[in-house]
Here is the input.
Amino acid sequence: MNFEFTEEQIMIRQAARDFAKKLEADVIERDTKAEFPTQHVKELSELGFMGMTVDPEYGGGGMDTISYVLAIEEISKVDSSISVIMSVNNSLVCWGIEKFGNAAQKEKYLPDLANGERIGAFLLSEPEAGSDATSQRTTAEDKGDYYLMNGTKNWITNANCGSVYLVIAQTHPEKKHHGINVFIVDKDTPGISLGPHEDKMGMRSSDTHSVMFTDVKVPAENRIGEDGFGFKFAMKVLEVGRIGIAAQALGIAGGAYERALQYSKERKAFGKLLADHQALAFKLADMYVKIENARNLCLKAAWLKDNDKPFGLTSAMAKQYAADIAMEVTTEAVQIHGGYGYVKEYHVERLMREAKLTQIYEGTSEVQKIVISRTILKD
Amino acid sequence: MKILVCVSNVPDTTTKIKLSGDMHSVDLANVQWIINPWDELALTRALELKEASEGKIEKVTVMLVGAKSAEPTMRKALAIGADDAVRVDAEPLDAYFVAGQIAGAIKDENYDLVFCGIESSDYNGSAMGSMLSEFMNIPSVSSVSKVEMDDDQIVVNREIAGGFEVVVPELPFVAIVQKGITKEPRIPSMRGIMMARKKPLKVVEASGLEALTEFVKYEPPQPKAACKMIDADNVAELVDLLHNEAKII
Here is the structure.
């Protein structure tokens, strides 16, 4: 057992921390205006974070999942709109294509996705199928050379900035989830249109839209895996995605905790520092323990994946626990700040809004508990 | 053309410095080490010049005098983009010692331009760059805030009172650089970090040179005296205190 990071992992964490420092200057303004961080994403790509886990053979950074957790955590301490763009691209889209795509698909799409030239989006949720992913209504009718795609996808991160879509759609409704397929779809294919930018509670500068498919012809060679592989693909990819979102929740909690800690050492009330009031010092202690627990779960999930061991249960635990404690920790951070915590200038209210989403997307906390309980009850 | 960038391994600038009980050493446990910020700017500028030089600058080397424990700092410099690194295996005792060791280690290398940060953020001696140029018997330009390449010449701006002067020194020379030579230090990219694994990091023996200074002890600054507030209307009390208590009027 070894709890030490390697020199390289420490260097990556520091690089992410240095990058995150630059986000502070305009994060509040971008959040308020729900403005996409074009320039920051460009730099994120140049630094190689957008494809940091992709094999160097395809132009990626070839970094391990532990490094990925550290990078996402540091960036999320400041701005989760940025880390979600990076997380979807790395763990859902790039990993999905790299792990399950064929040689031609990897060669065509991975290099551009790894260097940020193109950004990926993962289209699973529908107006009536969110966490309940088996009830796909988007159809992909097998026409021989191509599939004819019709339907609507909801809450799609990177829908506008992204141009490589991984779309989950039903080909054989009678086979239920065994009839689902996954396709790589170029956004500029005729018949694809976007709904308006969603006016979200948090992560406001990431770009979220619904996507409509009307008689979209998807070449047959763009299907990933065997016919009917789509549902399994989505479940596998989400196992990895959960590590990214767990790390994001961890970072949000950490960012709020660091601000609360700092504030409690500066602000006085009733003649002494906030930190010297036991009621608040105990809050900080509780926050610290929760964050440490969440970090250990995230890193364990990452370690299991890096060592080719089953990680689905641990990534579900990490995601559920980190998301739930992020909500608790950010709420307490606002409480420690008092009135200042309720205004934008002090960042913690924004972190609290961001935390909420980590309990919802890429499988709600309740869905994670389904995964966890089914796994532990199976034996 | 070849550029050498001299780097120091220093405690992170936010480190809370703790002294040992006998005031003879700094407690270095749990200190995070970084590239001296001025050296990091110098390295960034050297790489920018190389990238814009269309092949005229072939190589940027970083050099450090220090123990093996300083190697993570050197690998970070390689990850940022330096082509290779050389470590002189010795504790950096003082500026004279460091300058002498570097000069000895590079005497056969023919670097055209040597970058040094104007000071290091640990002891802030501001002496190494000038000493190095003396050891090498080449010119040095201090307080450099801009470095440009013009054909085969290096043009530098040197800060002086009220403005700056533009200098075109004969190569090779030592440029002692300060803030302003580049916008911000470069963050290593994932690719850079990956490539750093394979870049050469050479270790050379130290020469027999000895330090010129002897370390005696540390002394922390006097703690700030408590501030006494006097009502603005009470000038007489202020004068009385300044005269009888502070004894400065």
